[in-house]
């Protein structure tokens, strides 16, 4: 009997010891109550409590958590929006903050959601749709500042607030897509027109330059022809002692004859009339005479 009592006592001791051990995981905290009253906060590791008298009534997560809150609201220009706000927060690791976060708020998640609803619906109706997209960071900052002000005394620390999605009504999305498509088409047409304009300008400039060069070439060619005729007249007057007038008329006749032959070969059905040799002769005589006189003075 004595041995049985020892065994029973040993088993009870082991059971009581097991019930006395409190094991807390990393980044967690357990709330201990003694006979219904807050007793202590146990953090990561192993500790002891009084069995039956001390009870673990709650576990608080000390990691950074994220809560996504969908909010339906309306803009200043009467567009219905669904905005999703992501709240990243944690419970501060000191004992007072862990205690307050557990005892002071009956449902922290619901209370955070309520504040986000109120903050977003206070800001968005002041803005038109385009401004909501442009100012989403401002909306997020307003929500974060308000949450920190509200929840800091209860042990919460709001780390980041993000507006992760803005979804207008489906009809508004279709209208926006149509507007953007028309804008892109108009821009493409403007760029195409500008490119065509540049090509026309470049072509005109190239034609202008071509004609300029062509004109210069014709002028040089005519100058060379005149110099050749002038040389022929000089050779006749110097080599044969022919008068300038006679030499000029002879050269002009030869030129006209060559021209007629050339043109007749190209079109045999055309009749050509000879030109006034007297006028041509006078012009050539004047040109060659002036040059001959100049050479005689030099000699």
Describe the structure.
This protein is an alpha+beta fold. The chain folds into 3 domains: 2-60, no CATH class; 65-168, Band 7 domain (Tetrahydropterin Synthase, Chain A); 194-298. The chain is built from 8 helices and 8 strands. Strand 2 and strand 3 (37-42) form a beta hairpin. Helix 3 (108-123) crosses helix 5, helix 6 packs across helix 7 (244-266) and helix 7 crosses helix 8. The longest helix is centred in the C-terminal third of the chain and has 71 residues, at 170-240. It starts with a helix and ends with a helix. One of its GO terms (cellular component) is membrane. The chain crosses the membrane at residues 6-24. Residues 19-180 form the Band domain. Keywords: Coiled coil, Hydrolase, Membrane, Protease, Transmembrane, Transmembrane helix.
List the SSEs and their pairings.
Blueprint: H1 2-20, E1 21-24, E2 28-34, E3 37-42, E4 45-48, E5 54-61, E6 65-74, E7 80-91, H2 95-103, H3 108-123, H4 129-134, H5 136-151, E8 156-168, H6 170-240, H7 244-266, H8 277-298
Helix pairs in contact: 3-5, 6-7, 7-8
Shape: rod-shaped
Mean pLDDT: 79
Domain tally: 3
Within the largest sheet, what's the order of strands?
3-2-5
């Amino acid at each position: 009997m004595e041995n049985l009592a020892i065994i029973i006592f040993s088993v009870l001791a082991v059971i009581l010891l097991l019930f006395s051990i409190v094991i807390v995981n990393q980044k967690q905290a357990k709330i201990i109550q003694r006979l219904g009253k807050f007793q202590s906060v146990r953090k990561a590791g192993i500790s002891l409590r009084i069995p039956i008298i001390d009870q673990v009534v709650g576990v608080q997560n000390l990691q950074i958590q994220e809560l996504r809150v969908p909010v339906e609201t309306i803009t200043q220009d009467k567009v219905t929006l669904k905005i999703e706000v992501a709240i990243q927060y944690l419970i501060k690791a000191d004992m007072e903050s862990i205690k307050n976060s557990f005892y002071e708020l009956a449902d922290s998640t619901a209370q955070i959601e309520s504040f986000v609803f109120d903050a977003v619906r206070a800001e968005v109706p002041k803005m038109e749709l385009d401004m909501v997209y442009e100012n989403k960071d401002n909306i997020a900052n307003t929500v974060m500042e308000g949450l920190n002000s509200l929840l800091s005394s209860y042990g919460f620390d709001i780390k980041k607030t993000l507006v992760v999605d803005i979804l207008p009504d489906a009809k508004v999305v279709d209208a926006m897509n149509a507007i953007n498509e028309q804008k892109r088409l108009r821009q493409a047409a403007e760029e195409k027109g500008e490119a065509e304009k540049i090509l026309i300008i470049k072509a005109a400039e190239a034609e202008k330059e071509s004609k300029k060069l062509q004109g210069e070439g014709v002028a040089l060619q005519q100058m060379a022809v005149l110099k050749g005729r002038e040389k022929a007249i000089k050779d006749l007057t110097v080599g044969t002692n022919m008068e300038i007038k006679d030499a000029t008329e002879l050269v002009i006749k030869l030129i006209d004859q060559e021209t007629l032959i050339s043109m007749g070969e190209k079109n045999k059905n055309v009749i050509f009339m000879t030109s006034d040799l007297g006028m041509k002769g006078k012009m050539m005589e004047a040109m060659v005479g002036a040059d001959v006189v100049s050479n005689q003075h030099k000699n």
